[in-house]
């Protein structure tokens, strides 16, 4: 894409390590994408004297394309998540040999969550074993959308080399010069194709008829056009495809074909991006959170959203309309990525949703409540940067030098903003929809080489965590050991390489440890404790009563209930005796502050269990605060309340531990293993007997009940051209040598190092993907084995 748009003068190669977007040394050494990279280019490329009329097709008008190349490995799912959050459209690249893989389904589901319009490009059709027909049907069965085949592959003579594609939209054939750079394309009309390859012409007519039939089922406007004319114009089909995918539901999936290694099919794909995918103005209104209100950003900017909250009532004397407040917002942007660049310092990638971020503008961070100045603005070209004066709405750019901004922070530009308080309330708390961070499950110990290096290692880890929020660091209170957690083995391996090689940290990473949890097996009694001691030179005194039980999904929630880290915390504050039903608390200690203080103390107590110092999970804590006996006037502060709650919960945990009612829990993963039919038996036996796993289903794309329940697709009605080397079974995927899937739940401990074992079982053909499912209680043999490991291991238990 970059070569044909004129951005670069050569075509990069993954095998040679010469790609533009995979520029990290680790990416080039491994041949994979580790971090997402942004590039901005124009398609069609700018030419001197180039003009286009208003009636020209979209693909004839030059568009600015912000391309983000995302990783495909499961360990770097967060890179995909934060990129999808700010994208307007996506191109899903499928391997024509492997088809729809397990990770493809996971990323596709993430795109469904954000309603991203997308098209599919079936790549690597030049390789032996490429099966376009099978891949198209897998798109229908596994991605739960109707495949609209817009291009079909062209093999010379029906079974020769892959030389081009047939365009079902424009009814023509495109043939690329063998061994060329892909710029020489021969366009053959249907009349020329009748003499050159009549069999392919016949198949192309079938593809066109199937495409129109599919679109008529989803688009009434095209159906009416089809009834009124003898032959549909290509533009009507393009407009129909665009209407069908703009909502981002994925019900209809346009499919294109090519082989990027042979430089085939890339330019038509770029035309499809211009023709089908939306521009920023066509996307749904971004969702915002303003205080307790949820609304669209355009509702706020147009003045339709009322700002009449308690925080802004005092402003009504000076400003009579909320529109006057909102009109001063110059820009609203979301920070979706932070990178530490060796030459330019900290780079914050932003997507601007309204207005324009200008150089030297003061930006208010609504999450951290700090003001920072955008001293330099860049347009990123992978590892290179171009200085720009502003970043306008709909664009992706980079701000250099921000000290505090993190992934998911909302930045707004407001003239004359107070650096400490920001814009007037409630605009100072305006937030765009945040980016969800998946919880980590793999742990490894970080050991500085000396005490003098400990501070330096901690600072470097903070830089890594700011770059990648899916990494977590915590410190064991007893041993003082730093523990780094992430999404998988490769994820932590890359973090270790960056820590040692890029940042030159003098530290060693230990073996990967599993994050276990503790749980309460039986209800405890109530424990009331009074905290009475000085806090920062000021006397503090407060009381609290706590009890703990197993979590009950059907329990009736108390007056104030929060769910945090897999636990439920309920707070009950006794009402006053005056009959008004409200707690008798002073005005300087409102109920909300009491709730927050008690919750904070409980969370601190649950962070470390009494048995092996693992966090508590699946526990229900009930806190009771009676102002009549637990409140001690001015001595009762929020800090004292938090300490009282922590002591009460810890007392309840000690009681449970003394009665042997504290159990251990281990993380259990959802695992989808893809293997050949011949290896299926070995995989199932190994999963069930050797790894204590629970096999949930065995099947192919045609018998997955969960998918069929979501969307029933008649596989026989899906059109796809026959593969030249397909078997006579008609695409049946249950025979020997065909791909099968094993879906199972397996303890995470048994999955460490599983990839090597899986490859040995399947002759290198098996792959798997796993995601966190839940924590499951340990009992019997697995609990005894874990206790034995804790007793004999020299590594601290957490």
Helix-strand makeup class = alpha+beta
Cα-based radius of gyration, to the nearest Å = 30 Å
What overall geometry do the principal axes of the alpha carbons give? globular
CATH superfamily of the largest domain: P-loop containing nucleotide triphosphate hydrolases
Q: Give unreliable regions as ranges.
A: 309-321, 701-711, 727-737, 794-798
Given the structure, what is the number of helices?
20
Q: What is the fold named in CATH at topology level of the largest domain?
A: Rossmann fold
How would you sum up this structure, described in words?
- This protein has 798 residues and is an alpha+beta fold.
- The protein folds into five domains: 25-278, 3-Layer(aba) Sandwich (Rossmann fold); 287-432, Translation factors (Elongation Factor Tu (Ef-tu), domain 3); 442-514, Elongation Factor G (Translational Gtpase), domain 3 (Alpha-Beta Plaits, 2-Layer Sandwich); 522-660, Ribosomal Protein S5, domain 2; 666-792, Alpha-Beta Plaits (2-Layer Sandwich), CATH 3.30.70.240.
- Helices cover 27% and strands 29% of the residues.
- Strand 15 and strand 16 (370-373) form a beta hairpin.
- Helix 5 (190-196) crosses helix 6 (198-218).
- The protein is globular, with a radius of gyration of 30 Å.
- The two termini are 48 Å apart.
- The relative contact order is 0.09.
List the helices and strands and how they pair.
Blueprint: H1 25-30, E1 37-43, E2 63-69, H2 77-84, E3 90-95, H3 102-113, E4 118-123, H4 132-142, E5 146-149, E6 151-155, E7 162-167, E8 172-176, E9 185-188, H5 190-196, H6 198-218, H7 220-228, H8 234-245, E10 252-257, H9 266-276, E11 287-290, E12 293-296, H10 297-301, H11 322-326, E13 331-341, E14 345-358, E15 362-365, E16 370-373, E17 376-381, E18 384-388, E19 390-392, E20 396-400, E21 410-413, E22 431-432, E23 442-448, H12 454-467, E24 472-475, E25 482-486, H13 489-502, E26 507-514, E27 517-520, E28 527-535, E29 538-550, E30 560-564, E31 567-573, H14 591-606, E32 619-625, H15 627-630, H16 638-658, E33 662-676, H17 680-690, E34 694-699, H18 705-710, E35 739-747, H19 754-762, E36 767-777, H20 781-792
Parallel strand pairs: 3-4, 4-10, 5-10, 31-32
Antiparallel strand pairs: 1-2, 6-7, 7-8, 8-9, 11-12, 11-22, 13-14, 13-21, 14-19, 14-20, 15-16, 15-21, 17-18, 17-20, 23-25, 23-26, 24-25, 27-33, 28-29, 29-32, 30-31, 33-35, 33-36, 34-35
Helix pairs in contact: 5-6, 6-7, 14-16
């Amino acid at each position: 894409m970059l070569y044909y748009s004129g951005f670069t003068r050569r075509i990069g190669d993954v095998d040679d390590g010469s790609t533009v977007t995979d520029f990290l040394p680790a990416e080039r050494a491994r041949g994979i994408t580790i971090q997402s990279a942004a590039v901005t280019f124009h398609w069609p490329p700018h030419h001197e004297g180039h003009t286009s009329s208003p009636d020209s097709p979209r693909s004839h008008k030059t568009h600015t394309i912000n391309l983000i190349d995302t990783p495909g490995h499961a360990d770097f799912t967060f890179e995909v998540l934060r990129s999808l959050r700010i994208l307007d459209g996506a191109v899903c690249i499928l391997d024509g040999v492997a088809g729809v893989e397990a990770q493809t389904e996971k990323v596709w589901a993430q795109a469904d969550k954000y309603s991203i319009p997308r098209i599919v490009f079936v790549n690597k059709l030049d390789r032996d074993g490429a099966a376009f027909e099978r891949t198209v049907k897998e798109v229908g069965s596994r991605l739960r959308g109707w495949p609209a085949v817009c291009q079909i592959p062209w093999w010379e003579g029906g079974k020769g080399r892959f030389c081009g594609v047939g365009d079902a939209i424009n009814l023509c054939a495109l043939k690329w010069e063998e061994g060329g750079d892909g710029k020489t394309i021969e366009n053959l009309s249907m009349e020329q194709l009748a003499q050159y390859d009549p069999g392919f012409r016949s198949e192309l007519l079938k593809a066109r008829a199937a495409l129109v039939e599919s679109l008529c089922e989803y688009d009434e406007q095209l159906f009416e056009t089809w009834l009124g004319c003898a032959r549909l114009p290509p533009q009507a089909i393009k407009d129909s495809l665009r209407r069908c995918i703009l909502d981002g539901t994925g019900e209809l999936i346009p499919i294109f074909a090519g082989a990027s290694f042979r430089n085939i099919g890339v330019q038509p794909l770029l035309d499809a991006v211009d023709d089908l995918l939306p521009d920023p103005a066509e996307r749904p209104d971004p969702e915002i959170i303003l205080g307790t209100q949820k609304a669209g950003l355009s509702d706020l900017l147009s003045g339709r959203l009322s700002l009449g909250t308690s925080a802004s009532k005092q402003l009504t004397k000076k400003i009579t309309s909320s529109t006057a407040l909102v009109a001063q917002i110059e820009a609203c942007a979301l920070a979706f990525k932070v990178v530490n660049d060796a030459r330019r310092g900290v780079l914050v990638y932003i997507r601007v949703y309204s207005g324009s971020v200008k150089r030297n503008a003061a930006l208010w961070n609504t999450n951290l409540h700090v003001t920072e100045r955008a001293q330099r603005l860049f347009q990123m070209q992978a590892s290179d940067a171009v200085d720009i004066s502003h970043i306008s709405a709909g664009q992706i750019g980079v701000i250099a030098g921000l000290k505090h901004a993190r992934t998911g922070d909302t930045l707004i530009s407001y003239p004359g903003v107070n650096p400490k308080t920001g814009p007037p309330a409630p605009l100072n708390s305006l937030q765009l929809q945040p980016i969800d961070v998946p919880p980590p499950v793999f742990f490894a110990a970080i050991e500085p080489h000396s005490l003098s290096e400990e501070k330096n290692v901690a600072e470097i880890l903070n830089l890594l965590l700011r770059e990648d929020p899916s990494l977590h660091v915590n410190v064991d209170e007893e041993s003082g050991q730093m523990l780094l957690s992430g999404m998988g083995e490769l994820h932590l391996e890359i973090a270790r390489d960056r820590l040692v090689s890029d940042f030159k940290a003098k530290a060693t990473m230990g073996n990967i440890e599993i994050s276990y949890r503790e749980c309460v097996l039986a209800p405890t009694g109530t424990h009331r404790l009074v905290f009475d001691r000085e806090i920062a030179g000021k006397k503090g005194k407060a009381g609290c009563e706590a009890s703990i039980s197993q979590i009950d999904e059907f329990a009736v929630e108390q007056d104030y209930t929060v769910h945090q880290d897999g636990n439920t915390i309920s707070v009950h504050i006794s009402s006053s005796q005056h009959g008004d039903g409200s707690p008798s608390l002073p005005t300087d200690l409102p109920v909300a502050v009491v709730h927050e203080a008690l919750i904070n103390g409980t969370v601190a107590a649950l962070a470390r269990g009494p048995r092996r110092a693992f966090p508590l999970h699946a526990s229900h804590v009930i806190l009771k605060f009676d102002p009549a006996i637990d409140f001690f006037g001015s001595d009762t502060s929020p800090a004292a309340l938090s300490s009282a709650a922590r002591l009460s919960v810890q007392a309840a945990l000690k009681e449970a531990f003394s009665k042997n009612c504290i159990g251990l829990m281990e993380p259990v993963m959802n695992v989808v293993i893809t293997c050949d039919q011949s290896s299926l038996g070995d995989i199932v036996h190994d999963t069930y007997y050797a790894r204590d796993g629970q096999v949930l289903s065995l099947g192919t794309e045609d018998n997955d009940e969960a998918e069929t329940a979501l969307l029933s697709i008649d596989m026989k009605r899906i059109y796809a051209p026959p593969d030249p080397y397909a078997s006579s079974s008609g695409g049946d995927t249950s025979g020997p040598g065909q791909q099968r899937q094993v879906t199972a739940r397996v303890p995470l401990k048994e999955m460490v190092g599983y990839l090597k074992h899986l490859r040995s079982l399947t002759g290198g053909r098996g792959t798997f993907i796993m995601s966190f499912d839940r924590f499951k209680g340990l009992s019997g043999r697995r609990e005894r084995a874990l206790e034995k490991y804790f007793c004999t291991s020299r590594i601290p238990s957490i």
